[in-house]
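Supplementary Note 2. Why include the ligand at all?

Several targets in our set were suspected to adopt different conformations when bound, so apo predictions alone were not considered sufficient. For every target with a known small-molecule partner we therefore ran a joint prediction. The input for phosphoenolpyruvate is given below.
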Amino acid sequence: MIIILKPNCSEEQLTHVLEKIEEFGLKHDVSQGEHRTLIGVIGEEDVVRNAPLRAIPGVENVVPVLKPYKLASREVQREDSAFDVGHGVTVGGGSLGMIAGPCAIEGEDVLLEIAKSVKAAGANILRGGAFKPRTSPYSYQGMGEEGLKILRKIGDELGMPVVTEVMDPRQVELIDKYTDLFQIGARNMQNFNLLTEVGQTKRPVLLKRGMSATVEDLLMSAEYILANGNPRVILCERGIKSFDSSTRNLLDLAMVPNCKGLSHLPIIVDPSHATGRPELIPSMALAAIAAGADGVHIEVHCRPEEAMSDGQQALLPDQFAEVMEQMRKLAEVCGRTIPKPSSN
Ligand code: PEP
Ligand code: MN
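The joint prediction is reproduced in token form.
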């Protein structure tokens, strides 16, 4: 931590600041320039972070040197995190997680039809929501446990790991019985009780960026999961709110290399919720791979016009297969691989 003193800080004030630093059990290192005085504060990281240094008279600013998200940070772990998310599919470290499926689970036949098509195209993780976070309480809310059973059954039948959203800490135990990965949606990125609860499980977590969250907010939310003992977090960029309504959200692609510099965690991109427009999804999916993403998350439906949720942004199976093929070629050029699930 570096303290910057005010330009008019008196000698008495400087002495007082140094005394206060010592009272907190910390060490100081004063650097007196011609115009300003800086004080390096050294000591136990948590004590330094929590000491109310900014409140001492004569202090203008306090600048942290270390990132507040220590477990998620590259400062703590230089190499990329990579881990198995089920059925031998590794995400991270050059291995791509290609997540596809419908927004919501609507029934066994529909999900099986979609799942077969995305698997044949090369997707290696099946998605489907059983509990849907809808803006309106009158919109389709999902099939609940019955949907989870269908998702598990089809995942097992096709030998694919599955991911589904958990919205509430009280659902964690139930969903844990059926899923391979938990998804935490954009609306719950800062539901700290939920982050704590999934942090205490052993399942990988797909953590989506909140629609108004900064990159640091996202990494702090990941930190909650890591700090509770679960190291397997995959970040997901799904677009942020903007003034422009021509796309559903604004896809922040620069956050992919940005996050990669700051954190060792894998990061994938969801061009479906980011753009909300099927015609924009293939190019943004390719751009995501080119930007260094560890995978994509794409909604697919065989009959989008009949979908119970997000049909307007679903790709048809053929469209998904085409972009998968292009992503496969691009990944190869970029030295990355798309693992196939190990069992059928
Ligand atoms: C979803 O994945 O269906 C979803 C609701 O996503 P988000 O939380 O990004 O809006
Ligand atoms: Mn959706």
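The two ends are 53 Å apart (CA to CA). The pocket of phosphoenolpyruvate (ligand 1) is lined by residues 103, 129, 133, 185-187, 208, 238, 273 (CB under 6 Å). Comparable summaries for the other entries are listed in the accompanying table.
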